[in-house]
Description:
By secondary structure, this protein is α+β, with helices and mostly antiparallel strands. Helices cover 30% and strands 32% of the residues.
Amino acid sequence: xxxxxxxxxxxxxxxxxxxxxxxxxxxxxxxxxxxxxxxxxxxxxxxxxxxxxxxxxxxxxxxxxxxxxxxxxxxxxxxxxxxxxxxxxxxxxxxxxxxxxxxxxxxxxxxxxxxxxxxxxxxxxxxxxxxxxxxxxxxxxxxxxxxxxxxxxxxxxxxxxxxxxxxxxxxxxxxxxxxxxxxxxxxxxxxxxxxxxxxxxxxxxxxxxxxxxxxxxxxxxxxxxxxxxxxxxxxxxxxxxxxxxxxxxxxxxxxxxxxxxxxxxxxxxxxxxxxxxxxxxxxxxxxxxxxxxxxxxxxxxxxxxxxxxxxx
Length: 312
């Protein structure tokens, strides 16, 4: 017998109400399926491996980076790669990928990178994560970056690993001088990166003041340059952002810190007793060399910026 559309509708009307209710319940249930759970052990029990990635250029092999690999995790949509900051003392995500490997490049000499990975899955608007893998450390004896067919560096880059290593060494120098450590500031690091690019074209302190003011205004809507403090003998304005050290030509973080230590004005700035926070940036310019910037603050810049941003 041929079934017509009207026959289908007639048959459907005969369905038991309870049966229809069950069907609806199943559909509703499917619409709210939670994010798929990733295996509990995830990458925690999987040893991630590091291998120097080599390519050929003019008949010889050269290192282009460190290839970090791990096993595929069941139920994972992708993986997040994290790097540890020895100065900030925090892990930050540096790459999200669907692959089971990641090649770490853009490191200068003596740079040391600590890396770990975890799997994730997205479903129904929520994200679940697997456990972190064990961390691995990549040590760059020589510089590591991608080159073009002519053997030249493809792009300029920042090496935050070396920058944070320099900051740790800077605090050691402060301690040796009998001065307390200063805390890493993410806001000042952002400013250090801006200044590092600037000094690669104009090696001077000329733009430090104007750039600091622009940074606060453009990013946080802050126009104040000073924060007022009351003391017994009056009110004083303390600069939100303090002073800077700059240098160029040093091939690694140890050379950069030694150059500041051996220069009296820079060293006096480095061990300034009134400094509370700071940051350092390392910039490898394409065809222009290495540039280092250290900026110091007389107060907790990150905290002050958030407070002033809320007021504005």
